[in-house]
């Protein structure tokens, strides 16, 4: 019994030593995450507070509050038409990306053909490469073809990264559907189009909805391609916001912050909607499988 009593603390001490670095590492991670979120909340709250402030110089809070900056930004930047153009571009990109990307994802998930790995790699490139690297030659080509400077050019440019994105999102959803379901439908006389619309369509609806919402968020936030291919009547909200900050002229900072608050709130709403339909952890797990 004495030997057991003397040897008992040794495993406990080793266990404490084993868990101590992990606890310190976990604490450090939480500290860094907390520091990041504190700075993020501080930046966002500063913009929002300033968008309602009258003057704000040498004090913790503005001297007064008003909402007229939002009205000024709405009128000066013609935000109604800007928001309308943003919605037109975003929903057109979503629709075309799904129409092109879902059949392409089906082909990559179900068919084997020469050069399949190369095609998959080509789909990855627009997502992995920064948009500005291929945005300039793409915009040059679209201008030579007289397809840029309007909404159509902005839509075409945004399709370059969004179609591969839909393909990569949809492939795991298609692979988890048993191919025997399609075989049974073919035995009953259904054609390819009927199988795709009436059999696979309902099963793929959650994935299509997830891909569409994520493409919507991505398109609204896409600056580089939209900036390079847009014209006077085809600028989206993020391009107008950039022009308000860095363009010629003198503007009240509260007015710019009001427009930034409108953009941030719209993106936040889209992200909240996306997270209601998409679980990022579940999506990563499906891709890994």
**Low-confidence blocks of residues:** 1-8, 284-289
Note the run of SSEs as H and E. Answer: HHHHHHHHHHHHH
CATH superfamily of the largest domain: MetI-like
What is the CA-CA span between the terminal residues?
Answer: 51 Å
Percent of residues in beta strands? Answer: under 5%
Number of helices: 13
Structural class per helix/strand content? Answer: mainly alpha
CATH topology assignment of the largest domain: MetI-like fold
The structural domain count equals: 2
The outline comes out as: globular
CATH class of the largest domain: Mainly Alpha
What's the architecture of the largest domain, going by CATH?
Orthogonal Bundle
Helix content bin:
over 70%
What is the number of beta strands? 0
The pLDDT mean sits at 81
Computed over alpha carbons, the radius of gyration is: 26 Å
> Mind summarizing the main beta sheet?
none
Description:
It is a single chain. This protein has 289 residues and is an all-alpha fold. It has 2 domains: 2-52; 68-288, MetI-like fold, CATH 1.10.3720. Helices cover 80% and strands 0% of the residues. It has 13 helices and no strands. It has helices at residues 2-7, 9-52, 68-76, 79-110, 116-128, 131-144, 151-175, 179-187, 192-220, 224-229, 237-246, 253-277, 280-288. Helix 4 (79-110) packs parallel to helix 7 (151-175). The longest helix has 44 residues, at 9-52. It is globular, with a radius of gyration of 26 Å. Mean pLDDT is 81; it is low at 1-8 and 284-289.
């Amino acid at each position: 019994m004495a030997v057991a009593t003397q040897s008992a603390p040794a495993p406990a001490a080793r266990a404490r030593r084993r868990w101590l670095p992990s606890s310190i590492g976990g604490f450090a991670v939480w500290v860094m995450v907390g520091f990041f979120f504190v700075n993020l909340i501080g930046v966002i709250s500063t913009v929002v507070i300033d968008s309602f402030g009258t003057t704000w110089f040498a004090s913790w809070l503005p001297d007064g509050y008003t909402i007229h900056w939002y009205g000024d930004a709405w009128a000066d930047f013609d935000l109604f038409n800007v928001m309308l153009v943003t919605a037109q571009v975003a929903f057109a990109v979503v629709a075309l990306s799904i129409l092109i990307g879902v059949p392409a994802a089906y082909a990559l998930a179900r068919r084997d053909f020469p050069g399949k790995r190369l095609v998959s790699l080509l789909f990855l490139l627009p997502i992995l490469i920064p948009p500005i690297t291929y945005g300039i030659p793409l915009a040059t080509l679209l201008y030579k073809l007289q397809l840029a400077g309007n909404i159509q050019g902005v839509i075409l440019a945004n399709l370059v990264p969004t179609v591969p994105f839909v393909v990569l999102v949809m492939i795991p959803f298609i692979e988890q559907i048993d191919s025997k379901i399609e075989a049974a439908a073919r035995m009953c006389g259904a054609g390819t189009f009927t199988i795709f619309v009436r059999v696979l369509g309902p099963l793929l609806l959650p994935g299509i909805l997830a891909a569409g919402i994520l493409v919507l968020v991505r398109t609204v936030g896409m600056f580089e391609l939209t900036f390079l291919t847009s014209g006077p009547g085809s600028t989206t909200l993020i391009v107008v916001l950039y022009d308000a900050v860095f363009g010629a002229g003198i503007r009240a900072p509260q007015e710019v912050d009001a427009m930034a608050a409108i953009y941030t709130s719209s993106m936040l709403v889209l992200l909240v909607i996306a997270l209601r339909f998409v679980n990022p952890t579940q999506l990563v797990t499906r891709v890994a499988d």
